[in-house]
Amino acid sequence: MDNTNQKKALINSEIALFLRGLIIGKVLTLIVIGGLLWWLLKPNLLSRSSVDSSNQSSNAISSNTLPSTGSTFQTVADVPTASFNYGGSTAWASIRQFVDSQIQSVRPELQLRYVDPVNGSPGSSSGIRMLLDGKLDFAQSSRPLTDEEQAIAKERGFTLKERSVGKDGIAVVVNPLLNVSGLTVDQLQQIYLGKISNWNQVGGPNLPITPLSQRPEDADTVIFSSNSDLKQALGSNVHYVYSTTEAVRQLSKTPGGVYYASARSVVFQCSVKALPLSRTSGQLIPPYREPMVSPEQCPRRRNQLNTQAIKNGSYPIIANLSVIIKQNKGREQQIGNAYANLLLTDQGQKAIEQAGFVGVR
What we know:
10-stranded mixed beta sheet, two-stranded parallel ribbon, globular
């Protein structure tokens, strides 16, 4: 009996040992097979991982380097590498300060140097004159070219082209204490021709009018519509000033004074008041956004340019900001076109509006 039990116990022990060995063998076999499979598939896995990583990296680069929806300073071709002289309209001052600095930061190969006139005051007229005389490579203007200027250019073997890049209004400013509701364009012109000499002739107080203006040969902006009117003889009551800064200073001390200039230059000023204008006797349109900020509230608050009226053309006197380009198939023509093209990009137009003007695109 004891021998029988011993035999059964021995058999059970051998069976258990066999089964344990069988299980261990299968486990080892699976490990070996799994290892072989992993080794064989490793290149593909690594390759797929590399591709996925590359795709993620590629997508990130594409996202970061995609161009904006519009054109930029960087996309403009044929920008010459050199230093160039330019100048002209004082209305362009904020563009020279704000926009041109951006252009030269993005396109360092282009160097622009502003040049003041040796004789006379800076302005559109003096800039065009300097361009005709070969002292500038291109000019900035806030008034149209005259027939006389085109004739001079033709005599010298080239023509002049104006490329509009922005818009500005021409604002009329007076002493802040003057009580007058506004003027028509015709009334304004009659004042400067000496045919209207007292404010009571246009609904104001009994006060002599003192018109201030830059000299026609240095004019930065114009209030007469045609080229032939530009040098029309102004009245003997007109007082000539060197610049808008001087005019604003004089207006603050002259009760009956009046002056016209770039709206961007004078609407923000605290010491003068801008007048609403109309083409005829109809609705008066202010060059500032209503309600008007009174001089007492300035400089805590300042009047803002009525860009909407300039953009939709309802404001009566609008000036085109133009690059004046010498058409001579030389370096002057190349830089003039390049500069205009830079300002006409989406980036340039946005910068012009940030500088306080209205774009043309």
